[in-house]
Amino acid sequence: MKKLFSYFLQGILTFLPVALTLYIVVAIFKITDGIIGKYFIRLGINIPGLGILTTLILITIVGILSNWFLSRRVFDYIDRIFGRTPLIKLVYNIIKDTVNALLGNKNYLGKVVMISLPGDEKVKILGFLTAEEVESFGLKDYVAVYVMQSMQWAGFTLLVPRERVELLDVKAEQALQFIVSAGITGKDKNIGHS
Fold this sequence. Notes:
alpha+beta; 2 domains; six-stranded antiparallel β-sheet; 6 strands
Protein backbone atom coordinates (compact mmCIF):
# COMPACT_ATOMS: atom_id res chain seq x y z
CA MET A 1 0.00 0.00 0.00
CA LYS A 2 2.88 2.37 0.81
CA LYS A 3 4.40 1.69 -2.62
CA LEU A 4 1.09 2.49 -4.33
CA PHE A 5 0.76 5.72 -2.34
CA SER A 6 4.35 6.59 -3.24
CA TYR A 7 3.54 6.11 -6.93
CA PHE A 8 0.43 8.26 -6.49
CA LEU A 9 2.48 11.08 -4.94
CA GLN A 10 5.10 10.80 -7.67
CA GLY A 11 2.31 11.01 -10.26
CA ILE A 12 0.92 14.13 -8.60
CA LEU A 13 4.36 15.77 -8.45
CA THR A 14 4.93 14.96 -12.12
CA PHE A 15 1.46 15.91 -13.36
CA LEU A 16 0.56 18.91 -11.20
CA PRO A 17 3.17 21.46 -12.36
CA VAL A 18 2.43 20.75 -16.02
CA ALA A 19 -1.34 20.77 -15.52
CA LEU A 20 -1.23 23.94 -13.43
CA THR A 21 0.93 25.74 -15.98
CA LEU A 22 -1.37 24.69 -18.83
CA TYR A 23 -4.42 25.71 -16.79
CA ILE A 24 -2.97 29.18 -16.15
CA VAL A 25 -2.01 29.70 -19.81
CA VAL A 26 -5.46 28.52 -21.00
CA ALA A 27 -7.15 30.79 -18.43
CA ILE A 28 -5.10 33.78 -19.63
CA PHE A 29 -5.94 32.83 -23.22
CA LYS A 30 -9.69 32.65 -22.50
CA ILE A 31 -9.70 36.00 -20.70
CA THR A 32 -7.68 37.83 -23.35
CA ASP A 33 -9.53 36.16 -26.21
CA GLY A 34 -12.85 37.10 -24.61
CA ILE A 35 -11.89 40.74 -24.14
CA ILE A 36 -9.98 41.29 -27.39
CA GLY A 37 -12.25 39.02 -29.45
CA LYS A 38 -15.43 40.89 -28.46
CA TYR A 39 -13.83 44.21 -29.33
CA PHE A 40 -12.80 43.09 -32.81
CA ILE A 41 -16.15 41.36 -33.47
CA ARG A 42 -17.92 44.65 -32.75
CA LEU A 43 -15.71 46.22 -35.40
CA GLY A 44 -16.65 43.41 -37.81
CA ILE A 45 -13.13 41.97 -37.83
CA ASN A 46 -12.47 38.26 -37.25
CA ILE A 47 -8.80 37.34 -36.87
CA PRO A 48 -8.21 33.61 -36.20
CA GLY A 49 -5.53 33.03 -33.56
CA LEU A 50 -5.78 36.55 -32.15
CA GLY A 51 -6.32 35.18 -28.63
CA ILE A 52 -3.19 33.05 -28.84
CA LEU A 53 -1.15 35.95 -30.21
CA THR A 54 -2.48 38.26 -27.49
CA THR A 55 -1.68 35.69 -24.79
CA LEU A 56 1.90 35.31 -26.07
CA ILE A 57 2.32 39.09 -26.18
CA LEU A 58 0.88 39.43 -22.65
CA ILE A 59 3.24 36.78 -21.26
CA THR A 60 6.17 38.51 -23.02
CA ILE A 61 5.14 41.86 -21.52
CA VAL A 62 5.08 40.25 -18.06
CA GLY A 63 8.61 38.97 -18.75
CA ILE A 64 9.73 42.48 -19.75
CA LEU A 65 8.08 44.03 -16.70
CA SER A 66 9.73 41.48 -14.40
CA ASN A 67 13.11 42.89 -15.44
CA TRP A 68 12.24 46.47 -14.54
CA PHE A 69 13.13 47.65 -11.03
CA LEU A 70 9.64 48.54 -9.74
CA SER A 71 8.01 45.55 -11.35
CA ARG A 72 10.82 43.33 -10.07
CA ARG A 73 9.83 44.31 -6.51
CA VAL A 74 6.18 43.36 -7.18
CA PHE A 75 7.20 39.98 -8.64
CA ASP A 76 9.60 39.38 -5.73
CA TYR A 77 6.73 40.10 -3.31
CA ILE A 78 4.47 37.64 -5.13
CA ASP A 79 7.34 35.15 -5.16
CA ARG A 80 7.72 35.45 -1.37
CA ILE A 81 3.98 34.98 -0.79
CA PHE A 82 3.80 31.89 -3.01
CA GLY A 83 7.05 30.62 -1.48
CA ARG A 84 5.54 30.67 2.02
CA THR A 85 2.05 29.30 1.34
CA PRO A 86 1.73 25.57 2.12
CA LEU A 87 0.96 23.33 -0.89
CA ILE A 88 1.09 26.32 -3.26
CA LYS A 89 4.77 26.61 -2.28
CA LEU A 90 5.45 23.05 -3.43
CA VAL A 91 3.78 23.45 -6.83
CA TYR A 92 5.08 26.98 -7.37
CA ASN A 93 8.70 26.08 -6.56
CA ILE A 94 8.60 23.03 -8.84
CA ILE A 95 7.26 25.12 -11.73
CA LYS A 96 9.67 27.99 -11.03
CA ASP A 97 12.75 25.75 -10.74
CA THR A 98 11.81 23.76 -13.85
CA VAL A 99 11.30 26.91 -15.92
CA ASN A 100 14.56 28.40 -14.62
CA ALA A 101 16.41 25.17 -15.43
CA LEU A 102 14.97 25.04 -18.94
CA LEU A 103 15.68 28.70 -19.63
CA GLY A 104 19.16 28.45 -18.18
CA ASN A 105 18.64 31.37 -15.77
CA LYS A 106 20.63 29.60 -13.07
CA ASN A 107 22.65 26.45 -13.08
CA TYR A 108 19.83 24.35 -11.62
CA LEU A 109 20.80 21.27 -13.59
CA GLY A 110 24.42 21.29 -12.50
CA LYS A 111 27.29 19.89 -14.51
CA VAL A 112 26.64 17.31 -17.21
CA VAL A 113 28.06 13.92 -16.23
CA MET A 114 28.18 10.37 -17.51
CA ILE A 115 28.00 7.37 -15.20
CA SER A 116 28.51 3.66 -15.83
CA LEU A 117 25.76 1.18 -15.12
CA PRO A 118 26.63 -1.26 -12.33
CA GLY A 119 27.60 -4.62 -13.77
CA ASP A 120 28.38 -3.28 -17.24
CA GLU A 121 30.97 -0.54 -17.50
CA LYS A 122 30.27 -0.18 -21.24
CA VAL A 123 26.70 1.08 -20.71
CA LYS A 124 26.63 4.79 -19.86
CA ILE A 125 23.91 7.14 -18.61
CA LEU A 126 23.87 10.93 -19.05
CA GLY A 127 22.83 12.95 -16.04
CA PHE A 128 23.28 16.19 -14.14
CA LEU A 129 25.46 16.56 -11.05
CA THR A 130 23.05 18.23 -8.63
CA ALA A 131 24.93 17.87 -5.32
CA GLU A 132 28.63 17.33 -4.73
CA GLU A 133 28.13 16.28 -1.09
CA VAL A 134 25.55 13.82 0.25
CA GLU A 135 27.18 12.99 3.59
CA SER A 136 23.90 13.88 5.33
CA PHE A 137 22.67 10.51 3.99
CA GLY A 138 25.68 8.76 5.52
CA LEU A 139 27.43 8.44 2.16
CA LYS A 140 31.00 9.71 2.11
CA ASP A 141 32.55 10.33 -1.32
CA TYR A 142 29.16 10.06 -3.04
CA VAL A 143 27.47 12.67 -5.22
CA ALA A 144 23.88 13.22 -6.40
CA VAL A 145 23.25 12.72 -10.10
CA TYR A 146 19.84 13.49 -11.59
CA VAL A 147 18.97 11.16 -14.47
CA MET A 148 16.00 12.29 -16.53
CA GLN A 149 13.67 9.93 -18.31
CA SER A 150 13.23 10.60 -22.00
CA MET A 151 9.98 12.05 -23.40
CA GLN A 152 8.58 13.07 -20.01
CA TRP A 153 9.38 15.25 -17.02
CA ALA A 154 10.37 12.59 -14.57
CA GLY A 155 13.65 11.10 -13.54
CA PHE A 156 15.80 9.65 -10.80
CA THR A 157 18.32 11.14 -8.43
CA LEU A 158 21.09 8.60 -8.01
CA LEU A 159 23.65 8.68 -5.22
CA VAL A 160 26.78 7.53 -6.99
CA PRO A 161 30.35 6.91 -5.83
CA ARG A 162 32.41 9.89 -6.96
CA GLU A 163 34.87 7.73 -8.91
CA ARG A 164 32.05 6.42 -11.13
CA VAL A 165 31.08 9.92 -12.27
CA GLU A 166 32.70 11.39 -15.36
CA LEU A 167 32.31 15.13 -16.00
CA LEU A 168 31.50 16.06 -19.58
CA ASP A 169 32.36 19.24 -21.45
CA VAL A 170 28.76 19.80 -22.57
CA LYS A 171 26.31 22.63 -21.94
CA ALA A 172 23.38 21.62 -19.73
CA GLU A 173 20.88 22.81 -22.37
CA GLN A 174 22.48 20.57 -25.00
CA ALA A 175 22.40 17.52 -22.73
CA LEU A 176 18.82 18.30 -21.67
CA GLN A 177 17.72 18.49 -25.30
CA PHE A 178 19.49 15.20 -26.07
CA ILE A 179 18.03 13.39 -23.04
CA VAL A 180 14.44 14.68 -23.26
CA SER A 181 14.27 13.82 -26.97
CA ALA A 182 15.59 10.31 -26.26
CA GLY A 183 18.69 11.12 -28.29
CA ILE A 184 16.75 12.20 -31.39
CA THR A 185 17.95 15.81 -31.33
CA GLY A 186 21.39 17.10 -30.49
CA LYS A 187 23.14 13.95 -31.71
CA ASP A 188 25.03 15.86 -34.39
CA LYS A 189 26.81 17.92 -31.73
CA ASN A 190 30.06 16.68 -30.23
CA ILE A 191 29.58 15.49 -26.65
CA GLY A 192 33.10 15.58 -25.22
CA HIS A 193 34.78 14.61 -22.01
CA SER A 194 36.23 17.23 -19.67
